Amino acid sequence: MSTQQPDPQAGAAVKAADRAHVFHSWSAQGLVDPLAVAGAEGSYFWDYDGNRYLDFSSQLVNTNIGHQHPKVVAAVQEQAARLCTIAPGFAVDVRSEAARLIAERTPGDLDKVFFTNGGAEAVENAVRMARLHTGRTKVLSAYRSYHGATAAAINLTGDPRRWPSDTASAGVVHFWGPYLYRSHFHATTEEQECERALAHLEEVVAFEGPQTVAAIILETIVGTAGILVPPAGYLAGVREICDRYGIVFVLDEVMAGFGRTGEWFAADHWRVTPDLLTFAKGVNSGYVPLGGVAISAEIAATFDRRPYPGGLTYSGHPLACASAVATINAMAEEGIVENAARIGESVLGPGLRELAERHPSVGEVRGLGVFWALELVKDRVTREPLVPYNASGEAAAPMGAFAAACKKAGLWPFVNMNRTHVVPPCTVTEAEAKEGLAALDEALTVADRYTV
Ligand code: PMP
């Protein structure tokens, strides 16, 4: 598929310029060793040396429609020729249409859309809206969560990426969400886990003082912190707690939204409607930066006469909105959400469970759609993780060896702590999914060497 002849010299030049001038995110600058990417198409990308990778990471779980979808590329080109930029205060066709298409698909009465440039900014604004709507300040979020890297969003994040930026966390309180495999509540069944996680959350609300809590924010299905699918009844239970105490319920669907789970939104699996829903990534597969908040009628009404204090120069950028319109239309026309559901049910789910039977390093398989995790362990009986929590350097070597084995087998993995996330584009074909499973099979033999 690679349309380019290998050109290692060009790759070396790209990399040399990168190392000279690009300051990389989340990285020790002296240690980064980025792959120089020459191109991409569909479920694959390739380097300058002639290596092609099956993208089982969807980059940062955003290329739901695959790389270089021709309809989205054409829409960006056409929009660029017509109107590249216009300030957020004007009404412009692609922005109106993107908002309409999103509002049509979001659950319940989430019919107004505030556009942002990405996920963290969506979270920042959802929190601001909730605080202004309620007149309260505290926000509750889960320890096992990721909500973004800007000021409020990183504080809301529960995982260790929060630690270096934890100083401005006024008003943020963390709680434990459900995670039966490593239950914080000593539960042994889904029902127990659900009931106890809800009781715990309600107790946190009681001890914080319900009249001080503006919002509870959750990832509908926890993404980077583990692909944790909530037990049946959990989200409905959180909805009830929010209703009982007048708390704004925010669902963060930045990663789980727009087809990834085999529904337009993960909340659709449980028919739950939040008050605010944050999105980004899959809305236009990241072809141009875009995110946003879908807002309930009640919260939108708060800002009917009172100005909403937020927005950036590029909010609702025409190129981003044009790519969202093209993405959503292509997803609908080509049955891409249905494809994600079908591949999850008939290929990835059964295939990953079959791998778990043969590989002692697989502790748990969980997920749905094209949103799965293999949690790797040293010992299936004790469930000791293959690498310790938040390990780095030598301590993380087993996961490093596993990731290297994936790449050698032609698969680009999404590795986080002791897990590999299996997150191909929603457009992945059955043959590609099987190719990925075969590569994981090969790489898991490397992980198995570290088991007891
Ligand atoms: N929320 C969730 C659930 C995410 O997964 C992410 C990004 N991985 C964010 C928010 C932040 O999005 P962004 O990186 O676009 O700011």
TrEMBL record:
Keyword Transferase: yes
Keywords: Aminotransferase, Pyridoxal phosphate, Transferase
Named cofactor requirement(s): pyridoxal 5'-phosphate
Gene Ontology CC entries for this record: cytosol
One Gene Ontology MF term: taurine-2-oxoglutarate transaminase activity
Keyword Lipid biosynthesis appears in the UniProt entry: no
Pfam families with a match to the protein in the record: Aminotran_3
Enzyme Commission no: 2.6.1.55
Matching Gene3D superfamilies: Aspartate Aminotransferase, domain 1, Type I PLP-dependent aspartate aminotransferase-like (Major domain)
Family: Belongs to the class-III pyridoxal-phosphate-dependent aminotransferase family.
Protein name listed in UniProt: Taurine--2-oxoglutarate transaminase
Source organism: Streptomyces olivoverticillatus
